[in-house]
Input
Amino acid sequence: MLVKTNSLIMVPGNSTFFLTFAFFILLLIVSGLLLRGKRERTKQIVLLIACVITFIGYWMYKYALSMDAEYAVLHASMGGFNWWDELPLHLCNINMMLIPIAVLTKNRPLLSFCFLVGPLGALMAVAMPGVGFSGFPLFLPRILGYYGTHFMIIIEGLALAVFGLYRPRYRDLPGTVLAALALEFIVFLISLLLRTAGLSPHANYFFTIETEGNPLLEIFHSWIPYPFLYLLPCIPILLVYMLIVTTGFRLFGGREDAPAKRGSLPI
Output
C-alpha cells in the first residue's frame, strides 16, 4: 500500500514546487551578488564545489531510490529498480558532469551546451516528471533527490552567465544544436546496446526509444511513430529557446565575457 502525507506535497505547478524552485533561484542570486567583483578563479571554485555537491547528492539519491520499496512497486511493470537504468546518461545528468569540465577548460562549445541546453532539459524534467516523482512529500528522499538534483543543475548552468563565465553569442547556436543532436543519437545507441545485451530491458536514456507517458513526447510520437526520430521536433523548439535567450543577453546582458579558450586550464 502506497502511503502519502498531506504536508508539502510536490506537484509541478503547485505552491510547494514554486517555493522550492524560488529557493534555488534565490540561492543563485545571492551567490551572484556575493561574488560580484571577485576574481574569476574564485567564481570557478564556488561553481565547482556546487557541482561536486550535486554529483555526490545524485548518487546518494540513486542509492536511496534503490532502497525505496514504494518506487519498486510503482515501476514493477518496468522491472523495478535497475542500476543500468540509473546511469548518468540522461541530458540533465550529462550536463551535471560537463559543467565542471567546461568551467576548467573554458571550452566555448562546452560552455554553450551547458548553459543553453542543460537548464532547459532539467526544467523539462521537473515540469514533466515520470511515475513516482509527483504527488509525494517534498522531504521523501526520492522526491528531495530528484528535484534537488535537477534544480541544482538548472542554477549551475545559469551560473555560468550569472558569474560572468560565459555569454551566449548567435554563432554558438548551430554547433550547440548539432552537438545536442549528436549526443542524443549516441545515447540512443547506448540504450539499444543495453537492451540488446540484456543488461537493461527498459533502457531509455534521453527518452530516445519510448515516451514513458511524457505528454509532449506523446504528441511528437503521434507525428513520427519511430524511436529516436520522434524527438526531432525538439530541435526547432531548442533553437527558438536559444535564440530568445541569446537575444536577451545581447540586449540586457551587459559586457561580453572574455574569449573562451580551448583546452586551457584557468589555474
Remarks:
- The mean pLDDT is 89.
